[in-house]
Model the fold of this input.
Amino acid sequence: MSHHPPQVHGLSGNLTTPDWPALTLGEVQQVLALRPHCGLPASILWHSPRPLSAAALVQCAHGRLFIKRHHRRVRSARTLGEEHAFALHLRARGIPMPEILAEHAGGTVTVLGDWVYEVQAPIAGDDLYRDRLSWEPMIEPSHAHAAGAMLARLHQAAVNFDVPQRGTHVLVARSELIRAADPVAALAAQLPQRPTLADYLRDKDWPAQLRHAMSPWHARVQANLTDVPELWTHGDWHGSNLAWQLADDAPRIAAVFDFGLCARNFALFDLATAIERNAVAWLQRGDDRARPDIAHALIDGYRTQCPLSSAELELLAHLLPIVHVDFAVSEVEYYHAITGSRANADLAWFEFLQGHAAWFSSHAGRRMLDAIASAP
Done:
């Protein structure tokens, strides 16, 4: 195995030096000492290229395990426990996902100094999208169809998970700004509790920039969300967070994983996020990035489990250009306050938050929205 530090996915589609040190066998031994039923770790087989934490596949005496480490400023024991509670709820209701392995004392979260750990059984199925970036479209529409159907099943299983909102904004896909009558006022009200975000925004005309990014879509969305029921959502529905069984003629999802961005939102928020993640080639140069075939397949798959009215399809189209806004703001906060990267914070504020929204006003972007609103 190479002694060079493993690289991770960068924001521009490149490989880059990670913000977080790679997991070592020594710290894995400490984590698994609290889970003696797992056996002693023998080697680290693979380091994840995901950039926001450190994770690895580990060979242990009794099999392979997946271990993930967060800094406490990103996930505390409590906020990681929120993710686990939602995942365990879904698993108990038939959504296929890897088992979260508890310590011998019973808890699923391990804290060692500044680090917070979780341990999971290996996923079932083929990790087909393991090396693909979150902004790359799905390989083919049949995969999107299967993903849409599983997302609808997840929403059905989530209906009775009646738990309050996440206890953090950092790297969580929330929707308060989308749902607010005045997003600028809503974000201004949050800033006293998010002082490092306020520090980043201090030298910007952020109210005008946020308002410009969200119009004209926000008014059309917010007016139709008054009676939409809240629902816990996955928040990052991409092929790389799904495991696949491709032996049959039709692809099947064998496992759902990575609930790091989950939060209390609403069902169409998750479906719009799935389209944004999987049906627009954001890393491709030029304006013609749309994959309406993938968007239609996601919608068609979803509708095999949950019907969608023409009004809901129209709302989905209006939601798509701004579905990323709350998460983009959380990325700004993460990069500015925690990793100290002004360059990445600027990318999140200008290229992600504003640039993605602006693309939907292009000819290709509007064609994409029209295709979603009129999906057969």
Q: What stands out?
A: The chain has a mean pLDDT of 93.
